[in-house]
Amino acid sequence: MLTQTGESDLIDRLVRHGLGQGEARCYIGMLAPRAFRVSEVAIEAGLPRSRTYELIRSLVRFGLCTEVAGGGVSRFRAVPPNEAILRLETSLAEQARRRDLALNGILQALKGRGDPRAADREPVEMLHRRDQIITEIAEAIAGADHEVLTIMNIFWVPTPCETMQQQLDAGVRIRAVLDRPCLENDPHREWVAAYEDAPGFEARVVDRLDLMFTLVDRRITFLNLVIPEIDVPGSRVESLRVRHAGLGQTFHDAFERLWRRGVPFGRALEGDGGPAPDGVTIKPRGTGELRSRGRNGRSAEDD
């Protein structure tokens, strides 16, 4: 068992290697020669049980703990600290390699082909913090003249934005593609419900998303290179802001192909069997009527 000072030092080390504070605390909570139930880890980490389950699943995906079968209740065991640090270092190295490849490729593609309207600004800029990305996207949306396209998965938690509502009221078209797990997530359903009555807003669902981006007027692209809890455990979002009309058109074409494959959010929600949040209207199959459904009362998965 670690002393309090030893735990603090290990948490700091894990965070420096890419884990979030919550994930590090969950990992520390499993450092004993036995397997732990989610509820036990939640108590050790001082976190809600539903959130602890999500963090443990993130640790499992990156090999920092394993699930022990048997007994009818999920139990988890952490790998030794030295092994965990080595795996985090490997993940960080792979992240850096992929980021450099993507950045170099985009810079080469943009060489000598800048957007005249952005001549006084950098055509490509790396954004590292989620709050920074949200602010920059909101400012770009506020300046939109025609259309905003966005793709998000379950790991990007949206919040209703006054800027989006103002732009919808001004006639800007906003379309979103979400992945299927978003149908069972309150923030995503509520985000769609906040705008679904506004003319010009549409949302569709696809089974899987391999990239996330937001495109404003086909000329400003926010391309996520690192998606939280997918690429690196506990990672901060890393996104490229690219001001380039040619690349924007390429992403617009990619969005349209994905859009054609998608199912309208309300229909997907109905087919998935999960009730919609207050305000979301669902069109039943084979009828011309709209009906409302109540808020989903399903809780996160318990142990």
Description of the structure:
There is one protein chain. With 303 residues, the protein is α+β, with helices and mostly antiparallel strands. The protein has two domains: 4-86, Winged helix-like DNA-binding domain superfamily/Winged helix DNA-binding domain (Arc Repressor Mutant, subunit A, Orthogonal Bundle), CATH 1.10.10.10; 118-292, Endonuclease, Chain A, CATH 3.30.870. The protein is built from ten helices and 13 strands. The chain has helices at residues 4-16, 21-29, 38-45, 49-61, 81-110, 130-142, 162-169, 186-195, 245-261, 265-272, and strands at 36-37, 65-68, 75-78, 124-127, 147-152, 173-179, 201-206, 213-216, 220-226, 238-243, 263-264, 281-282, 291-292. It has an eight-stranded mixed β-sheet, sandwiched between helices. Strands 1-3-2 form a three-stranded antiparallel β-sheet. α3 crosses α4. The model is unreliable at 112-120, 229-234 and 272-303 (pLDDT under 50).
Put the structure in a nutshell:
This protein is of the alpha+beta class and 303 residues long. It has helices spanning 4-16, 21-29, 38-45, 49-61, 81-110, 130-142, 162-169, 186-195, 245-261, 265-272; strands spanning 36-37, 65-68, 75-78, 124-127, 147-152, 173-179, 201-206, 213-216, 220-226, 238-243, 263-264, 281-282, 291-292.
